[in-house]
Amino acid sequence: MTNRNNYAAKMALKRQSRSAAGLVSERFPQVLDIVIHMTYYQKGPNPVLMLRTVNIFPASYAYFKMDCVIKGCDGGGFDLTSVVDDMVKTHKRVKKGALVCRGKTDTHSPDHASIEYDIAIKYNKA
């Protein structure tokens, strides 16, 4: 029962964070859409854990924190908020980079997961 309550509290906090971030149309009115391609990596013999594409539209929340997919990772994830903010501010269309998860886990090393990202932003013509 404790796990269920912890999960419910965690999900409520996540919903609250998304709502607090506001909508893309409010925060970045000049943005038409954002596409984030990510490759998740883990330490081990099979390093590629997952390929993921996230499509973000004006009606989406301006929340760019992606969770770590390693089971048991506490407080980790990949926050792309500053990357997207900088891209919009400088009107940049494409950016590639990498991030390392800083979360804690009992069974994995401190650098247990990372991502490589490729972000593409389309802007309104006006």
Q: What labels describe this entry?
A:
single chain, 126 residues, alpha+beta, four-stranded antiparallel sheet, two-stranded antiparallel sheet, 6 strands, flat
Write a brief caption for the model.
26% of the residues lie in helices and 34% in strands. By secondary structure, it is of the alpha+beta class. A hairpin with a 5-residue loop joins strand 1 (31-42) and strand 2.
Please provide a written account of the structure.
There is one protein chain. By secondary structure, the protein is an alpha+beta fold. The strands form two sheets. Strands 2-1-6-5 form a four-stranded antiparallel β-sheet, with helices on one face. Strand 1 and strand 2 form a beta hairpin. It starts with a helix and ends with a strand.
How do the helices and strands line up, and which of them pair or pack?
Elements: H1 2-21, H2 24-27, E1 31-42, E2 48-56, E3 65-66, E4 78-79, H3 81-89, E5 94-100, E6 113-123
Antiparallel strand pairs: 1-2, 1-6, 3-4, 5-6
Number of strands: 6
- Spatial shape: flat
Low-confidence stretches: none
Radius of gyration, rounded? 16 Å
Strand content: 25-35%
Q: Note the main sheet.
A: 4 strands, antiparallel
Structural class: alpha+beta
How are strands sequenced across the largest beta sheet? 2-1-6-5
- Oligomer type: single chain
Relative helix content: 25-40%
Order of helices and strands: HHEEEEHEE
